[in-house]
Design goal:
about 575 residues, alpha+beta, Triger factor/SurA peptide-binding fold, Chitinase A, domain 3, 3 domains, four-stranded antiparallel β-sheet, about 10% strand
């Protein structure tokens, strides 16, 4: 029993198991903070009203950036923004603002100690606060992500406040015994399934796209192919390799100081020796599945790595100094500022001129989101037509604006390639699902064996050994899909088609379903309730937030599609004096 519970605790962190429960519970996950970007107009007008009052644009902008932070801190980068994302962003911003207002009306607050406890919990390793990781985050990662320390402090305080409100709302959420049984069955029932993958090629060979279809698509859905705002820029790159620093020139005391301040970068996971008690209790299983522990590599082992890293950083700093000197030649404050081309000639660096760039385009050889952000922040005036230095692993870029190109509808010729790709993909998808319906009809309605129908189409149906959602189908790349397909099926039933990674569809039929051992349910009930509660909570929270907005008589003006310039989170006066980097 102890071994079973141990396995369950491990499964709580399993992506497959979470996917299993997702199929059973079916919920709509609405994050408190997701994508963001925001345009410069956010600070220029009131974006909406609650409780009969205009919401200041600055308050909306701060919430916009807090919504972004949830995603950025988790993923370590800024997302690309589409109009669809922009609408979702705004929905979550208003939910956040309504929740913060409700928390204040209820008299909730977040003390300094509570905020710091949340920070410590976020930067803890094995239950111990990792001060080096916290300092690295504040001093290096926050500025790289475009945030100040003051912004993060305000964000964490609001998160603690929202967490207290969430806890109050979650306290009313109940999990009925029937739901516990249903989820236990999904996890512990034993399945045997036969399954087949319908490849994309089976439908693709019979799909042809005509010019008439393309023109009809363009005439009826031209807006879907609108060209986004673009910029025509040029740039220079000060390469790190052109400013070499030898690792041998790095002094030992410099390397040791760097190592001491960044030990978290040199931690690795190693197998932990099982204790004698664990071996005596669990036997071979304890040795077969050793626990992993974190180990810090000693300085002597990483000395050369540290020196190489410091040498490269020194080279990058020299490239940055060269970029700063280049920019100084462009400044309008100079008596005779140089043009971008003349400054490049003086610095002996080559000017690159890529094709006009959209916010989500990738510049060949660059592939750096910060490059795109800097390009779209440029303005056609002597002070802002050139960028600040943009640092990358390759070196330091300086970008200059040639022309801003507004969004527009394309000509048919310009959209032809995208039209053909889109229409063809849609036609293939429709044909593929038609094939799946045909197979389902032959098997489910006419009672023919799945393997027999599949063979007529030149496909091979396979039958799995007995498996549970816990273990999945042994030695089967499609295991997670098959598990998801059969969970909601009774014995003898055929699943709905499931999209496969290769672009096809997977159909599965439950040959046998054996109920799990009911004797283990009592020991796992508390864990199952916690998981179900955790998965249903976002639905309850979203409903509560929508009710708050309705009660506040929320209203927002219609907004045209966003011309995303991927503006940074602390730009254009949005950051007050108290938000300056510290």
């Amino acid at each position: 029993m102890a071994m079973l519970i141990s396995r369950f605790n491990k499964l709580i962190r399993s992506r497959i198991l979470w996917g299993v429960f997702l199929v059973i519970i079916v919920f709509s996950f609405v994050v408190w903070g997701t994508f963001s970007g925001g345009s410069r107009e956010e600070t220029a007008r009131s974006p909406g009203r609650m409780y009969g009052k205009d919401i200041p644009a600055a308050e909306f902008h701060q919430a916009y950036q807090a919504v972004l932070a949830e995603w950025v801190f988790a993923m370590g980068r800024r997302p690309d923004i589409t109009d669809r994302m922009d609408r979702a962003i705004r929905q979550n911003v208003w939910r956040r603002l309504a929740s913060l207002e409700e928390a204040r009306r209820m008299g909730l607050s977040a003390t300094d100690d509570e905020v710091w406890a949340a920070v410590e919990a976020s930067f803890s390793t094995d239950g111990q606060f990792n001060e080096a990781a916290w300092r690295d985050f504040v001093e290096r990662r926050l500025p790289e992500l475009g945030y100040s320390k003051a912004f993060f402090d305000r964000y964490m305080r609001d998160e603690v406040l929202l967490g207290r409100l969430r806890a109050i709302v979650d306290s009313v959420l109940l999990v009925p015994p029937a739901d516990v049984q249903r989820n236990f069955s999904a996890w512990r029932d034993e399945f045997t399934a036969e399954y087949v993958e319908i490849p994309r090629s089976l439908a693709e060979t019979n799909v042809a796209v005509t010019d008439d279809q393309l023109r009809t698509e363009f005439e009826t859905r031209a807006e879907d192919y609108r060209l986004p705002p673009r910029v025509r820029v040029k740039y220079v790159l000060f390469k790190v390799e052109d400013f070499p620093v030898e690792p041998a020139s790095i002094r030992d005391d410099e390397a040791e100081d760097y190592y001491a301040e960044n030990t978290h970068r040199y931690r690795v996971l190693v197998p932990d020796e099982p204790s004698p008690e664990a071996v005596s209790t669990n036997g071979a299983a304890a040795a077969a599945e050793p626990r992993m522990r974190e180990k810090t590599r000693p300085f002597e082992e990483v000395r050369d790595e540290v020196r190489a890293e410091l040498a490269r950083e020194a080279s990058r700093n020299r490239a940055r100094e060269a970029a700063d000197a280049f920019i100084s030649r462009l400044l309008p404050e100079r008596a005779t500022p140089m043009s971008f081309d003349d400054a490049a000639a003086a610095a002996q660096v080559e000017i690159q001129r890529p094709e006009p760039l959209a916010a989500r385009d990738v510049v060949p050889g660059v592939a750096l989101p910060a490059f795109n952000r800097a390009a779209f922040e440029l303005r056609d005036n002597p002070d802002e037509y050139f960028s600040n230095p943009v640092t990358s692993d390759r070196g330091v870029y300086v970008i200059a604006l040639d022309e801003r190109l507004p969004s527009r509808l394309p000509t048919y010729e310009e959209a032809a390639d995208r039209l053909r790709e889109s229409v063809h993909a849609r036609a293939v998808k429709e044909a593929l699902y038609a094939k799946a319906r045909e197979l389902r009809t032959a098997v489910a309605d006419r009672g023919r064996p799945l393997a027999e129908v599949a063979a007529e189409w030149g496909l091979t149906a396979r039958t799995s050994p007995a498996f549970t959602a816990d273990d999945g189908v042994p030695n089967e790349p499609l295991s997670s899909l098959i598990v998801q397909a059969v969970l909601s099926c009774n014995e003898g039933e055929l699943s709905e088609p499931m999209p496969s990674p290769a672009g096809g569809l997977v159909l599965a039929r439950v040959v046998r379903r054996v109920p799990g051992d009911a004797a283990t349910l009592a020991s796992l009930k508390t864990d199952i309730v916690q998981i179900v509660h955790r998965m249903r909570a976002p639905v309850l929270q979203a409903s509560f937030q929508d009710w708050l907005l309705e009660r506040a008589a929320f209203e927002a003006p219609e907004r045209p599609p966003a011309e995303t310039d991927d503006a940074g989170p602390e730009e254009d006066g949005a950051e007050s004096d108290e938000d300056a980097d510290v």
